[in-house]
Amino acid sequence: MPHLPFALAVTFAASAALADGFVPVTDRDRFVALVGARALQHPVFGIRLEVTPDGQIRGDALGWEVKGTWDWKDGYFCREMDWSGTPIPFNCQLVEEDQDQRLRFTVDRGQGDAATFRLR
């Protein structure tokens, strides 16, 4: 069974990063174009996720299955997930992109912690 601290990391909550070089993604179509057939990877936490245009999330974190659903609401990425039986509650997140093929997700509509993922 996964450890609770790691479950928090999977919620896309990590230490906040600086805004340098990141611009908000406010449109669902732009977000879908960015994630396309690529995966989101976070090497520190061993996370690899696929976010599909049909609203599904699947992947793994440290070898444990991650699955969930997502939607785009009022300019935010809103998702609910499960990490190997550990629920990760619904949360809407600010998404930002940079020129280095990275997406940053900031929980609580941009008011909380952030995690940056590389697009692969």
Defining traits:
120 residues, alpha+beta, Lipocalin, eight-stranded antiparallel β-barrel, 9 strands, 49% strand, globular
Write the layout of secondary structure elements.
Layout: H1 4-10, E1 23-25, H2 28-35, E2 39-42, E3 47-51, E4 56-61, E5 64-73, E6 76-83, E7 86-97, E8 102-106, H3 107-110, E9 114-119
Antiparallel strand pairs: 1-7, 2-3, 2-9, 3-4, 4-5, 5-6, 6-7, 7-8, 8-9
Explain what this protein looks like in three dimensions.
- The chain is an alpha+beta fold and 120 residues long.
- The chain has a single domain, classed as Lipocalin (Beta Barrel).
- Helices cover 16% and strands 49% of the residues.
- The chain has 3 helices and 9 strands; from the N terminus they run αβαβββββββαβ.
- The protein has helices spanning 4-10, 28-35, 107-110; strands at 23-25, 39-42, 47-51, 56-61, 64-73, 76-83, 86-97, 102-106, 114-119.
- It has an 8-stranded antiparallel barrel with strand order 2-3-4-5-6-7-8-9.
- The longest helix is centred in the first third of the chain and has 8 residues, at 28-35.
- The protein is globular, with a radius of gyration of 13 Å.
**Residue fraction in strands:** over 45%
What's the structural domain tally?
1
CATH topology: Lipocalin
Low-confidence parts, pLDDT < 50 over ≥5 residues?
A: 3-19
Report Rg. 13 Å
Give the strand order, joined by hyphens, for the main sheet. Answer: 2-3-4-5-6-7-8-9
Question: What's the total count of β strands?
Answer: 9
Based on Cα principal axes, name the global outline.
globular
Number of helices: 3
Q: Any idea of the CATH class?
A: Mainly Beta
Give, in order, the helices and strands. Answer: HEHEEEEEEEHE
Q: What class, by secondary structure content?
A: alpha+beta
Terminus-to-terminus distance: 28 Å
State mean pLDDT (0 to 100 scale). 87
Helical fraction: 10-25%
Under the CATH scheme, the architecture is Beta Barrel
Main beta-sheet annotation? 8 strands, antiparallel, barrel
